[in-house]
Prior knowledge:
Oligomer: heterodimer
Strand content of chain B: 5-15%
CATH topology of the domain at 4-43 and 90-192 in chain A: Immunoglobulin-like
Structural class of chain B: alpha+beta
CATH class of the domain at 4-43 and 90-192 in chain A: Mainly Beta
Largest interface: A-B, 49 and 59 residues
Largest sheet of chain A: 5 strands, antiparallel
Strand content of chain A: 25-35%
Distance between the termini of chain B: 69 Å
Shape of chain B: globular
Helix content of chain A: 25-40%
Shape of chain A: elongated
Number of strands of chain A: 19
Radius of gyration of chain A: 29 Å
Number of domains of chain B: 3
Helix content of chain B: 40-55%
Amino acid sequence: MTSSANTPDSTVWPSIRFRRWLDRRMPPASAITLDRKKIFILPTKEGILFSFLIVFMVLAGINYQNSLIFVLAFLLASLFMVSILHTYRNLSGLTIMASSTLPAFAGEDAEFTLVLSRLGARTFEALLLGWNPELLQGADLLEEEEVKVKLFVETRIRGVMNPGRMLIQTYYPVGLFRAWSWLDLDMQTIVYPRPVPAGAIPFAQASSNDGELIQREGVDDFYGLRDYQQGDPLKHVAWKSYARTSELLTKQFAAFADRRVWLEWDFFPGMDREARLSRLCYWVLKFDAGNDEYGLRLPGIELAPGRGHEHREEMLKTLALFEIEQGS
Amino acid sequence: MTGFQVPRNSLAWMLVAQMAVIVPHFSRLPYLTIALCFFCVLWRVMVYQGRWSYPGKWIKVLFIFFGTVGLGFGYGTFLGLDPWVGLLIMMFVLKLLEMHHKRDGYVVILLGYFVAVTQFLYEQGIPSTLYIFVCVIMITAALIGLNQTRSHLRPVQTFKKATVLLVQSLPLMIVLFVLFPRISPLWTVPMQSSVARTGVTDTMTPGNIALLTQSDELAFRATFAGEVPPLSKLYWRGLVLSRFDGESWTQELPALYGRIYRPDQPPTSWQDKMELLGEEVRYSILLEPTSQNWLFSLTMPEGTNKEGIGLVRDFRFYSFREIRSKLRYELTSHLNYRIDRDLHDFWRYRYTLLPEEGNPRAKRLAESIWERSPNKRDYIRNILRRFNLEEFVYTLKPPVLGDHSVDEFLLDSKRGFCEHYAGSFVFLMRAVGIPARVVVGYQGGEYNRIGNYVEVRQFDAHAWTEVWQEGQGWVRVDPTSAVAPERIESGLEFAVKDEDTFLSNLPLSWMKYRQTLWLTEIRLQLSALGYYWDRWVVGYTPSVQMSLLARYFGDLDRKWLGMVMLSGFFSLLGVVAIFVLGKRSHALLRPIDREYLRFCQLMARQGLPRSVGEGPLDFAARVAQARPDLAPAMKQVTDTYIRLNYAEDQPEKTKSLRKAIRVYRFRNLVTEA
Lengths: 328, 673
């Protein structure tokens, strides 16, 4: 369950059979230069309306026996045809490269950065690209040789996300034709589980010989503040802080034998896999904001406690990829 | 999606194009509609600036109501072309206030193209065609703006792009224009209502031809197959006026003339009354619209076989349809002829009829001259001599005459224009029983050697007479030639030179500067251009197309023509595609290489092309050997190129190289000179 569930399922997207044909014709690559084989072009609704206008003008020319009406009608007909060339030209020769991606939590938008670049004098204008046909991102390549475009794709479930074929299209210059292509830039990113608040921190189990973590409510040893959650005893609310900042925080008290926390799969008995991962994810983020070292134990996986950005990424990645076969 | 904002670039061009397209219609539109146009544009600008919001539904209904009422009152009817064009323009401006979606922008633009096309129903000259072309570029710029990203704010750039697109479309348009199979109208359409036009009318009252000659508008152009006859012989006969009511001359009652001869019908009873003698003159006339039915021809014309044209009993041509657009017809005339050698008593009576009352002194004058003249011929001669010798003056400013206009002119004022002379001459003829009639039309013209045609303008309008003589039939007598022979020899301008009244109310008319040679040259060129335009573009009708294409392709049917058109169109589209999509290799070159290659082209023009793979130093050595005179410049350019390219590695700095090349070009120019 890697990618397909993550691609938008809008009707403008190619059907499966067509997608297979596309895969043969334009195999995924991290840099693609658009050419004759990759560009599709068809008139838009406005183009069809325009051709009706021309037919109407020709009829007027015939009925009024007016040569100059013919002149204008034929000029517009020629414009219609010439605009095919110009619309095609506005994609042809453009190079699209995959640049970088940023991971996201499921339900948020993942960021994909592309680089559009041109060679030579040809300029590109009013390009529209993206995975969501409702929210295509515009880009121009006029004076600049290359331009970075950040695209956002909505994510739904954790795992490796391959957004699939991206749409790049243009109506420029006259909107009578639409030239487009579906590109697979072979980009992917990791989608972390959606963090779900997990109530009070579960009591950690003593983990190893390094020390014992004990946390008991009511112990006077104040160790920090956390966001208020429903169910927290009112006497633990930090009212002074609330008066100052109007943020509801709960005082936490604990007694630590050792300031290393293990986040355990077993904290959440009776929950299914995704629910557990979501809650663990939440705690990873919590602990990352605090001062303690934290480790993770999943069935078959154990990550030693640590701290810092890289540690956090590793934890999140482990959660994201847990029990997902790579590369399917 | 009410939040849609038309890109600023597009909106600007939309508003400009809209005004440009509507302005030529202003003279025909009711004031209320014009006010509505301005108001809508103003409102749209206010919406753009965020000061006003789009009008509500009721305000729009109110607009439509007032617009429609305005059109209804302005035109008095909703039938006909003008109100429909007005309605179209109203839709076009109102749509501006309803641009909630991108698609509405497209609707405005398509309506704009359509309003632009309606202008051609009224005017088809070169200037208005160029104007509409510019309008179409602006509308296309608005269309492009609609498809640009919001950040694009360079309207001039957009206009250039539109120009490029349309200029590339021009050759394709020409192929379609020439080859698209033309067909006759499929159904009848409302035509524009008649417009008052200047030109010869079917009533001649003293003063109205003089008024007509104040205009320098074109009447028609005539192209002769052979040599052009002398201008003094060009009497373009238009109408025969034979009824006199004491003040003005009008046409004979049509009922008395009997049937009009048409080529597709058997000959009429009166056709043998026409004897054509002498050499034939073949010519064609391209007549400007007159909103009348009569046509002009040199005396005496053979029949024509053009559809819709007939010959009337008094031997002139008649179009069965009012002439609302330019009409081209071909004619053969014989300058020697004899018509109506026998005149029926009825016609003898009609052509000597004068009102019982009025002009008694002129009648007495006629009788006294008649008594002194031995025969009819002497009588005519005596009257012409009287015009010539007595103090008659040919003037564009004759005094106003009273009830007995002939009396007053002949015996008191003695100042008049051609219609005074023609009218009173026929009066004097009829007074003694000689059948006579007035003919109006044009006399002379100006020969344009560039276009090889004779151009006849309104100030060439003229009136003369025909007198019936025993054994000879109708003979043309032009009394004006007795008073002012220079009118016939050299035209009106010379005839009224002394009084300086030629086109006196048109101080800027081209025609007043016929003495300035270079101006005349330009005028003739422009006129010839206009003639070719009218002949080959405006006048490119189905029959012209068929005869033109038959010349090159033999007999073609429409299907074949369609195939030829499509293959021509698509091969030309291929050429345009190469032009549009072709790799511009020089664009990929570094600037310095581009300059150097340009220089090599200059050398190639001197007969020294650089061969493929020849290095700059080798090339320079070869040039120096072949042309020692070019050696210093060659060395300068080559050294600069090599220095910039290899030694300094600054291929972007082309300034010194360009300068070296400029020095070479200058020297070359000097030596060539």
